[in-house]
Amino acid sequence: MTPDSILTTYDHVADGFDRRRDRTLFERKWLDRLLAHAPGRRVLDLGCGPGRPIAAYLSDRRCEVTGVDGASAMVALFRHNLPRATAVHADMRGLKLKAVFDVILAWNSFFHLSADDQRGMFATFAAHAAPRAVLMFTSGPSEGEAIGEVEGESVFHASLSPDEYRKLMIDAGFAPIAFVPEDPECQGHSIWLARYMG
Hints:
By secondary structure, the chain is α/β, with parallel strands linked by helices. It has a single domain (3-196), classed as Rossmann fold, CATH 3.40.50.150. It is built from six helices and nine strands; from the N terminus they run ααβαβαββαβββαββ. The chain has helices spanning 6-20, 28-37, 54-60, 72-81, 115-127, 162-171; strands at 42-46, 64-69, 86-89, 101-106, 129-139, 144-150, 153-159, 174-183, 189-196. The strands form two sheets. A seven-stranded mixed beta sheet has the order 3-2-1-4-5-9-8, with helices on both faces. The protein has a two-stranded antiparallel sheet with strand order 6-7. Strand 8 and strand 9 (189-196) form a beta hairpin. 39% of the residues are buried.
């Protein structure tokens, strides 16, 4: 199992993932915190999946959401579930939308990339960040690789160390605001929040 198989896997499991995705909005606290820091309501959702519940929640809060996913089946579901949002079928790696956003979100998506591809993503985040934009992504609590499961299929996960994430953010112009590893109030997710200082 490698990161190269992620998009094929999510294409294969898209319908089941959409049906069974937890929609209790256990992420709400962090999404609200994200919006409280955001200078505006233009949202780039990287690895958006089917758009429920996160993109739908943001749309309900007057956000203009652009969802990006490399799995075409996920993009089709996103378009169906959020017909007023913008959906883009593209790999987040090397993304060039020629637009900037107030919020850049990579929730449970960025950590499917290899360590080297994650390092390269910080330039992509910066290229799409408006002045004082906020970035939020999930990672592992510490450096390492793991194999998880989605809809019975194995999926790759990787994480850099917290110190390396901080350095990469600072080098790309982001000032870290918060990092909570394995947040017990968010089903154990490890969450980063940062502001783009340019």
